[in-house]
Amino acid sequence: MRHFDFSPLYRSAIGFDRLAHLFNEAQRTEAAPSYPPYNIELVSEDQYRISMAVAGFDRSEIEIITERDGLKVSGRKAKPELQGTYLHRGIASRDFEHNFKLADHVKVVGAALNNGLLNIELQREVPEAHKPRRILIDGEALHTFNAANQDQLQAA
Q: Which residues are CB-contacts of 75 (< 8 A; sequence separation ≥ 6)?
């Protein structure tokens, strides 16, 4: 595997520690878990969906936890009381845990389990303070603003 040195970026990029950490994590040679299979879908510009194939798992056996910039999805299969004798066992029912890194302002807005698919809905909600704003030059506005934005710009 090829290794890259990102140290030149650290000299001129300030506040990108999290991005650098993500690059370093991606270079690790550990294999990513492949069970259960999942998709990450871009639904719209600010909406995402993670779909996981969790056939055989009940709602009570799946746990979804969000913490700061992370999402953890885990499944703990309850042990059956009676073990049957299988001639072929192709349906996996082992425990799993997936960790996802979430970008700034991406929040989990819901989850549903339908037909063996766990769908986790995510949305990017950028606060007004972080959205682009037009700066006045010599007190003249380039475009029309609503009253709230004009008050904020004049106070600045």
A: 36, 54, 57, 61, 62, 63, 95, 96, 97
Domain enclosing residue 144, as ranges: 127-156
* Domain-located, residue 25: yes
CB 74 within 8 A of CB 94: no
Shared domain for 101 and 46, answered yes or no, is: yes
Phi, psi (deg, nearest 5) at residue 104: -55, 140
Check: pTM over 0.70? Answer yes or no: no
* Nearest to 109, CA basis, from 125, 98, 123: 123
DSSP state of 60: G
Q: Over the stretch 101-118, which tens digit does the pLDDT of each residue have?
A: 888 889 999 999 999 999
